[in-house]
Write a structure and sequence with these properties.
275 residues; alpha/beta; binds nicotinamide-adenine-dinucleotide; globular
Length: 275
Amino acid sequence: MRLQGKRAVVTGGASGIGRATAIRLVEEGAEVWIGDIDAVAGEEVAATWNGRIHFQHTDVTSADAIAALLHMAEDAGGLDILFNNAGAGGARAAIDAIAPEDWDYTQALLLRSVALGIRYAAPMMAKRGGGAIINTSSVSALGSGYAPTAYSTAKAGVLHLTRLAAADLAQHDIRVNAVIPGFITTNIFTRHLDVSEEKRAQANEAIAGMAAHAQPVRRAGRAEDIAAAVAYLASDDASFVTGTSIVVDGGLTIGTRASWDATQPSLFAALEAFQ
Ligand SMILES: NC(=O)c1ccc[n+]([C@@H]2O[C@H](COP(=O)([O-])OP(=O)(O)OC[C@H]3O[C@@H](n4cnc5c(N)ncnc54)[C@H](O)[C@@H]3O)[C@@H](O)[C@H]2O)c1
């Protein structure tokens, strides 16, 4: 019960990482406000955790909507924790083909939303004598090949914003950190597909089949793995931790696949043949 009596806001809390984190924060004693564009799933989470999780329809590309969501926790007694997490894959086009408005939308969804969340939460937290902000980045911030370019660039921006905001807000005892998820089995991979529910279920199944073999740790990444890291960063256990990030990726970014997967062609294995 590390978060007893705390009030938290979680964006993108209707599904996946946000949902699992909202539940984890409640299990550790917090009261949580989730903001999401998916009202059906959001209301369902709130109904299941009646009185501990509240849902507010929130589009994080809207500054007013973010401010309104944060005010709900503020008005209930004060905001202690913000998890800036809502997101989607964004524009998938390559850099030599992307439309300017698609680039802008992706940055607004994944980077501007985080900046504005911090912008509005910080004065509320400063008034209370401090708080904890956690932002969702991605392994795609660390290198190519994980996600589309616009998304990956925004997620790299989230990492740098985390450092700069931590420096700006330390004077108010507000800690700002990021979590870097690897391949986590959620609905994010199939959400954009314009297909029947049956086809979507098939696609989700195919992804689940890949997930256990995508990284050195031999099981699929779960939303709860990220929730555990966020709960730590939100708690006083992390009171000396700010301006940094925790990679939770089952070793996905350790190095080349050949370094941990013996079925992959490797230079060292090739040289063995000449000994
Ligand atoms: N799943 C992964 O492998 C992975 C890896 C790295 C980073 N991430 C990041 O984790 C975060 C959560 O993703 P997830 O995997 O849980 O996906 P998800 O699709 O299960 O959940 C994302 C939630 O965000 C909501 N959302 C989307 N656009 C929104 C908007 N404009 N305003 C408010 N809510 C909005 C969706 O409705 C959904 O409930 C995202 O920022 C994503 O980029 C995910």
